Fold these 2 entries.
Entry 1:
Amino acid sequence: MVASIHNVTFDTAGDPYDLAQFWSRVLGRPMRPDDNPGDPEVMLEAAGEATILFIRVPDSKSVKNRLHLDLRPTDRSRDEEVERLKGLGATEHEDHRKPDGTGWVTMADPEGHLFCVERSAAERA
C-alpha cells in the first residue's frame, strides 16, 4: 500500500484568507466558494491535485523552511515569472541565476514562506 498527498499545508500567523489570495493568484487555483476573510482555514483546490490548505497557528516562523515549493512557469520565462510574483507581493530572497541562463531564484511569500522559481520548460529545451 502507498499513501497520497491530500493537503499541502501552510501555517500562517495572519489571516489565512490573505495568504490564500496571494497563492491563488500565483498558482491560478480558486479558493473554495465558502472561504471568507477571518476564517481559521482556507483552501485552494484543483481537480485531481492535492489541496493547498492555509491555517492560522499561534506560532511565528522562526527557522528556515524544511520543505518548500519549486515553481516552474508554464507560459513565460523564469525572469518574467519572478517579476510577476514581485508584483503580487513576493520578495526576492536569494538569486541563484547564472550568466549562462541556468539557475533559480528563491523568493518569499508575504508571510515569509520560501519557494523557488525555476526556468520554464521552454528555457530548459
Entry 2:
Amino acid sequence: MTWFILNFISGSIPWSFILGKLISNKDIRHFGDKNPGVANLWKATGWKIGTIGLIFDISKAAIPVYLTINYLKLTNIEFILISIAPILGHAFSPFLKFNGGKSLAASGGVWISISGGILVPIIIISLIIFHSLQKNHAWTIILTMLCILIFYLLTNFDYNIISIWTINIILLIYKHRNELIKPIIFRKRTNIFKGI
C-alpha cells in the first residue's frame, strides 16, 4: 500500500501546470481544452517548454513504476495497483483539487515501463498514423490503446497486463467522454494524381 501511495503521489504532481506557472506565469487551464496537461502547456508556452513538460509527465509515471516492478517482489494485485497508481494520480490530482489531467503522458509512461521500452515505437507509430488519418484526438488515443492490447494478445498474454489495460482504458474513456461522443472525422486527402 505504501508503494501505491508513493506512485499515486508521483503521478499526481502536475508538472505541466507547474512549468506553465513558473516559466511563463500562465495558468495552462485557460488554454485549449482547459486541461492541465502537456498539450495546453505546449499551446501556452511553445514547443520547448512543452517538450520538457512531456518528459516530466511521462517520467513521473515511468520511473516509479519501473523501479517498483523491477526491484520489489510484488503479488499480482500489487503489480496491477502500482502500475495504475500514477495514472490515477494524474487524473485525480490532489494538488489540483482532484481535477487532474487526462492521463495520456502518465499512461504512456506506465506502458513504457511495463514493456521495458518495447512499446515506444508502437505507441509513436500508432499515434502518428491515427492522427494523420482523422481529427478527433480522443479516438487517436483509444485506437492506440487498442494497438497496445493487440500487441500483448499476440505476444505475451497475461491477465495482469489485461487488467491494467482495462482499468487504463476505462479511465481514458472517462476523461475523454466529451470528445468520444463526437464521431471520427477523417482528414481530407489531396489526390496527387489529379489531372494526370
